[in-house]
Design goal:
Elements (H helix, E strand, L loop, with lengths): L2 H6 L4 E5 L5 H9 L4 E4 L3 H8 L10 H6 L3 E3 L8 E6 L14 H12 L5 E5 L7 H14 L7 E5 L18 E5 L2 H12 L6 E3 L3 H32 L3 H8 L21 H11 L6 H10 L1 H15 L8 E5 L15 H10 L3 E5 L5 H8 L14 E4 L11 H6 L9 H8 L13 E5 L6 H6 L2 E4 L2
Parallel strand pairs: 1-2, 1-4, 2-3, 4-5, 5-6, 7-8, 9-10, 9-11, 11-12, 12-13
Antiparallel strand pairs: 6-7
Bound molecules: nicotinamide-adenine-dinucleotide.
Nicotinamide-adenine-dinucleotide (NAD) binds next to helix 5.
Amino acid sequence: MGLYENIINKMEKISLIGLGYVGMPIAVAFAKKVDVIGFDVNKEKINLYKGGLDPTKEVGNDVIKNTTVDFTSDEARLREAKFHIVAVPTPVREDHTPDLTPIESASRTLGRNLTKGSIVVFESTVFPGVTEDVCVPILEKESGLTCGVDFKVGYSPERINPGDKVHRLETIIKVVAGQDKETLDTVAKVYELVVEAGVHKAESIKVAEAAKVIENSQRDINIAFMNELSIIFNKMGIDTKAVLEAAGTKWNFLNFSPGLVGGHCIGVDPYYLTYKAEQMGYHSQIILSGRKINDDMGKYIAESTVKKMIKANKQINGSKVAIFGVTFKENTPDVRNTKVVDVVKELEEYGVDVKVVDPVADKEDLWREYRINLCEVEDIKEMDAVIFAVPHEEFKTIKLEEIKMMFGPTGYVNSEVMNEVAATSEFDLVNDNKEYVLMDLKGMFNRKEAEDTGFVYWRL
Ligand SMILES: NC(=O)c1ccc[n+]([C@@H]2O[C@H](COP(=O)([O-])OP(=O)(O)OC[C@H]3O[C@@H](n4cnc5c(N)ncnc54)[C@H](O)[C@@H]3O)[C@@H](O)[C@H]2O)c1
């Protein structure tokens, strides 16, 4: 019997190495069909999972409580598995070069515990060549085994989108690759156990590695183009959103919008490709230009806010600005590499006192990584400008009249309460001669309504 048959007959186990946003949902999905060992170096995380808690919010506490994944931080348990999936982080360093430390370290751990007849599949996003040229030599050295003879390798990039309940592991076609036909067939059959949308067999491991890294590079470049358009149209006094709505009626106009590009994927993966290209003697032009535009957007937004405030006769040094939303995108607690922080830091350099409101963000991570504390919406009063940076569901019910209150001494008041008691003059309603600067980065509000309500309105 082959490895696949042994796995489905529960004579052999699958292991997951790295149980974060990617690895944990994969482990849980496989555990519905076969025996799974879930390994992570982070003991605290393993204890949370064992205690039935899901810090990533990807599958929820109930699913973690009921899963049969055998969670462990004991690397020796990896010896019990014959099919290994590695999903550890692949970040960049300060200088934007790939930091392969976690994937190299995971390869060493796995190598020490690798047994004959195993298949190792990498899921982490990498540049073409990392699996075969970086990880395989480590696996061979640590195990004393020979790749292609004693064990085989494959690659299958992850395409999930955290916080997205529609595009999930089960519903996204999975690209799979193996070092030879037999390995490819086994890897494909194993993933077909959980991926209902089916698999695409790539012709080689390097092709699959390249496919993943260009998916996110393409997205990055398209958003950079939108950001550049936004800078140009703002200079011309034309509304970018209105231009995109008009252009979007053409059948082949691509649907992208301007915005901050943060997180650990789109803002990071293109650097993996450009790094490898540079090593091969080619200096990327389009990819790096796109990266530069997107990386500079936080500064541009802060400068645009200051310009609007100056035009509204505000004294900048010592002024107060509220920012709504600090995560790298909407409806996720994830603050890794969020570019909203660039807006905060840049405004602070002008002497602005910045208040950040975000009911979704992971408070501890925000403090640990950026030394930023969160405020409650009720604390937002006497502002000189308000920035809506991330369109969380929680913010969609906030009304323009409520935002106006944030500029006065009473501060935010729920509009129902406001209407009930307005007649009693209990609230010191805002002075109508004031200039209300509203920076609506993602176009959550209607421009005309905002302007008619008296706001100095700006969006990307
Ligand atoms: N999160 C996404 O949306 C997403 C989507 C597609 C691809 N990816 C890629 O998937 C990979 C993993 O991303 P993630 O978001 O799950 O990261 P993550 O940080 O959420 O999780 C990674 C986990 O690996 C663990 N880990 C680190 N070093 C380890 C080691 N040596 N041995 C065992 N465990 C180790 C960490 O403790 C952590 O729990 C990255 O390459 C990323 O680019 C992520």
